[in-house]
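FIELD: query
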Amino acid sequence: MPKVVDHDQRRVEIIEAAWRTIARTGWDSATMAAIAAEAGFANGALKPYFATKDDLLAAAFDHIYVQTGRRMVAATAGKHGLAALRAYCREILPLDETTRDEARVVLPFWHKALTTAHLAARHERAMREWRTQLQRHLSEARDAGEVRTPIPDEDIVGHLLTALLGAQITATLMPDLETAQTLTTQLDAFLELLRGPAGTSCG
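FIELD: result
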């Protein structure tokens, strides 16, 4: 009997092979043949799933976004206010090997999105969702009296998202300076400022 192929699973395997290859060799060197080899498939086996490398890059971004979302749900479970906000932000920061590899994939995606409307729209949808969730956790913290700064929530969320996305760049280009400890310290220092002059540690 012919082997039954799980096409959804194969698609995921190709996407994961793509982001591993891009993270390891860079976008220009990550040819379709190299990605196929990483996935353990013959050259040309990717075409039925992804017609071009740009299509594969878009799918890799979507995959990373979904995986990040799952980590966010797990990390914030049972947490509220600033603790939940901190946990949510930490899942965006490139703090370990996996998330640093993801950042190396996101950077070429951003470059492509500058001149590709449907990729830019993909990114905007993802960032709108992150803004919504950041706002939710921040509002909860303010309602609980943890946040006392007069700075409007919209500005705080904008600052946070800009810093979190910027960390994708700095941690990729300067990994010896922007370590996991450094990025975590920066996040905690900012969250502490939200408490105002009479703040106490958020733990």
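FIELD: remark
Confidence is low (pLDDT under 50) at residues 199-203.
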